Every structure is written in structure tokens, then in C-alpha cells.
Amino acid sequence: MMGRMLRFSLFGESHGRVVGVLIEGVPPGIKVNLEKMKAELERRKGIRRFSTKRRENDEPVILSGVFNGFTTGFPIAVIIENKDVDSSYYEEIKNTPRPGHSDYTAKIKYFGFNDYRGGGFFSGRLTAGIVIAGYFAKEILAKAGIEVKAYIKSIGNIKAKDLSVEEIFISKNSFCPDEEAFQKMLEEMERARKEGDSVGGVVEVVAINVPPGIGGPYDEDLEGDLAKAFFAIPAVKGVEFGLGFKLAELRGSEANDPFVVKDGKIMTETNNCGGILGGISNGMPIVARIAFKPTPSIYKPQRTVDLEKMEETEIKLRGRFDSCIVPKALPVIEAMMALILADHLLRWLSWKGLMSLGKR
Length: 360
Fold this sequence. Notes:
Elements: E1 7-12, E2 18-24, H1 34-43, E3 61-64, E4 66-67, E5 70-71, E6 76-81, H2 88-92, H3 103-109, H4 127-142, E7 147-155, E8 158-159, H5 165-170, H6 179-194, E9 201-208, H7 222-231, E10 236-241, H8 252-255, E11 259-262, E12 265-268, E13 276-277, E14 280-281, E15 286-292, E16 302-306, E17 311-315, H9 326-357
Antiparallel strand pairs: 1-2, 2-6, 3-6, 4-5, 7-8, 7-9, 9-15, 10-15, 11-12, 13-14, 16-17
């Protein structure tokens, strides 16, 4: 289970009866808008022509924790039925692990007892539960005026220009504010699709109005918790904050963010650190970039092994796969950031509330 005060756990498998999420720690009295939740799940479907041909309605069913349209403060359980399932192909390849997938490592870890159909618990299908949990986290953050927005920074070698926080949040393009770059990204995804291949990319996510003081050192580290959450998303292979790895190329005089006073508030002149210092938020926008590898399931022949015969062989996949998962990852990334921020916010508010009591 991920989180401390706000916790969530996923369950189900890609080709099982349902996928779902259990969320604990959501305060009582939060109004639940099912249509808003469904809209978030709809975003997870991405751009249709680059997504799997598997079509699921993703109709969330709330089993507990909500009464008369409001959260009760008790655990919230939500499920989504899997209806468009075809497992026949996975029986054919159960002993020939797909390169780039968890097929082999999962078989070793769970001694072959795991559900391998469609990737089982390792499938991107499970991210529906993350998005649902993220909906509740966003509602918590909204009460503090905190907003989270993700967009496609790059697809393959096609990169969006550097954008201001304002440009990111006011853009009407739900995928990428840089329209010119986005059109080229679409072309790159289309090329990969036509070639029976796949392509990866980078998502940038920004959180604004986060108060200073959230997080802590070591196991309370806000960056550490965010990074762990992002890496828990299937296909994520890299995470950086602020300028990230570029900071290693700079001198301290270039990398440091000078402190200034603006409108009566302490701010930094630049935001090279991405809004976090010492594992604690500094009041500036929190900026992270997450790298997604290309979808491992492709239609080109690939080398693998037959685990029963212990022989090298070739596998040519057929089935329903994404040529690029980056567009559909946007609400998942937002959800993960919202969940971690909401968890840390609730922890910080408990301290703040105690401090406000003064001496008794």
C-alpha cells in the first residue's frame, strides 16, 4: 500500500473479472462527482489510433466509503469490470516471454503461479485504479488551491519547446501546449504504428500553489516519494526534477536559485531545483519529467527463449497493443503526483494544526 495518511492499494488483473483500488485516509465530507471521475478515466484512453484496440467502458462502481454523494472518512473501494477480454493468444506465448515485458521476471518471482494473461497485475490496465485514487487526491488538493497538470514533453526525438507555467495551465490542448511540436509528435507515432513498432517519450508534470514546508529528509523526502510513485507506473524508466541531470553540467553559481521577496512572499528567482529543497517543498512550482520506454509489445519479430525447451526462438506478436502509451499516461502521472502531494499535505496540516494549539 502506497502512502501514509492517504494510502491506496491496487487489485485485479488485466484479464481478470475486475480491476480496482482501495483508498484509505480520504477525509469525510468531500463531494464525489462521478462524471468528473469518468472524465479522468476517459483521458486514460489516450489517442485512439495509437492505443490498443481493446475497448473498455471503464464504468467505476463505488462499493464503499461514499454515502449520499460525499466521502464518509472510511475506506473507499472502487472497481471497474473487464469486459473486452481475449486471453486466447496469451496461452500460446506463456512459455516464450516477450522481450521488454515482465513476463520472465514475474514467472521467476511468483514461481509461475501469477496470472500472465495480458500482463496480469503488471498491465497498464491497473492504472485505472491509480486514476480513480488520483481523482480523490485532486479533490483534497483543490481545497488548498493546489493544481496539477501534465503534458507531453517529447515523443521519440520530437520535443516541445520550453514552456512557462502559465502556458502549460491555460493551454486548451489536453496533450501538449506546443501545437507545432504536437503535430510532429503525431506523425512520429503514426510512423511507428505503420512500421509495426512503438515509440516512447517524456511527460512533464507541474504542481502549482504547493505551500512551502511539505516533505522532509530521508524517508520523508517529497522527491523520493514522488520518484517511487512515478517508477511504480508501468514503462517508466527515468525521473528527474527541475533541471535534473542538466544540473550536473553547471557550476553552483549557475544552478542555485536566488531567494527574493515578491508580493510579500519568499520566492526564488529561478526554479532549477523544481520546487523542492532538502526533500521539502519551497513554495515554487514542483516540476518533474518522467521518461517512458517504447511499448514492448510490437508486431516485429523478436528474439526470445522457450522456457520449457530452454532453446532460443523467435516470437512474432499478434494481439491488441499500443504503439505509444505516452498520451494515455498523462492522467496517470497527474494522479500519482496528486496522491503523493495530498498525502504529504495531510501530514503537514496535522503538524500545523498541533502548532496552532499553542501551549495548553
